[in-house]
Amino acid sequence: MEIRKELNNATLFPNLEILANQVVEGFISGIHKSPFHGFSAEFAEHKIYNNGESTKHIDWKLYAKTDKLYTKRYEEETNLRCHMILDNSASMFYPQVKTQTLGNLNKIGFGILAIAALMNVLKKQRDAVGLSVFSDDYHYYTPEKGSERHFQMLLAKLNEIGSEKSGGKETRTYTYIHQIAEKIKRRSLIFLFTDMLQTEKEDEELFEALRHLKYNKHEVVLFHLMDKELEYHFDFDNTPKRFLDVETGEHLDLYADTIKEAYEKGVQEYFTSIKLKCAQYRIKYVEVDIIRDFSTILNTFLVERSKFL
């Protein structure tokens, strides 16, 4: 792939939590009337407090006005468990950009912000979220929890990943997906963010690992991240370039136009095979262009959450 300027050492996003909230609020503002109950944290109505009930949801402001105890009853309170899996391999750091912004992200930056945005929604819903990060090693795992402290810990971890210059040199998806599947015991909604570029095993074995995630009645969504203009359509100007495989070190010197047609045909066939395998194993496949906005991610979450509960 084309070599571009390296990322700087600064944190990817100065305040990931605020930016994730902006992404979610921007999405919500585009929905005139959401058909999905409980998407916001607002309550549906008050009810009179009965002795012996938990005091957790007492509306103390209303008590100060009325001298009566009422509790807030929310539209939907669930115990959804959601586990995010992030591919942190070297290929996910493509394309390399000097400064990442909301409109100029590489694959790892998009994945980090997408997960943070989903965590924002899960937090409002009082749902539990866990996180796994892998590349050539199983870098990080934390089980699903819903506390504020837990959310802040995950945000700190995502920011740490965003400050890295590159990921692991190899993508050992097969090995670590199996390990992650063994760790997630309770039924969960699982989101995998990856570019599906891996060096360890053949595709058939990779999908056996993905099928492992379906055990224990988990629902799995595969978000296939790509820069569609460059990685799918191979849209480069026709000047001599060196294309480098960041995970193997192999390179090719060529003019883009000489292989553009054959390249695009090969990529289309590969993507079609992925979609068919996902359909076979009942894994939700979502193609995501990182140049576009985050509505695809959030819309998919709303649909899958409503089906899961």
Question: Secondary-structure blueprint of this entry?
Answer:
Elements: H1 16-29, E1 43-48, H2 60-66, E2 70-74, E3 81-87, H3 107-124, E4 128-134, E5 138-145, H4 148-162, H5 173-183, E6 189-194, H6 203-212, E7 219-226, H7 228-232, E8 241-244, E9 251-254, H8 256-280, E10 284-289, H9 295-308
Parallel strand pairs: 3-4, 3-6, 6-7, 7-10
Antiparallel strand pairs: 1-2, 4-5, 8-9
Helix pairs in contact: 1-3, 3-4, 5-6
Write out key terms for the chains shown.
single chain, 309 residues, alpha/beta, Rossmann fold, 2 domains, six-stranded mixed beta sheet, two-stranded antiparallel sheet, elongated, disordered N terminus, vWFA_dom_sf, DUF58, DUF58 domain-containing protein
How is this structure best described in words?
The chain is of the alpha/beta class and 309 residues long. The chain has 2 domains: 41-74, no CATH class; 81-308, 3-Layer(aba) Sandwich (Rossmann fold), CATH 3.40.50. 39% of the residues lie in helices and 20% in strands. The protein has helices spanning 16-29, 60-66, 107-124, 148-162, 173-183, 203-212, 228-232, 256-280, 295-308, and strands spanning 43-48, 70-74, 81-87, 128-134, 138-145, 189-194, 219-226, 241-244, 251-254, 284-289. The strands form 3 sheets. Strands 5-4-3-6-7-10 form a 6-stranded mixed sheet, sandwiched between helices. Strand 8 and strand 9 form a beta hairpin. InterPro entries: DUF58, vWFA_dom_sf. It comes from Maribacter flavus. This is DUF58 domain-containing protein. Pfam families: DUF58 (PF01882). Residues 47-268 form the DUF58 domain.
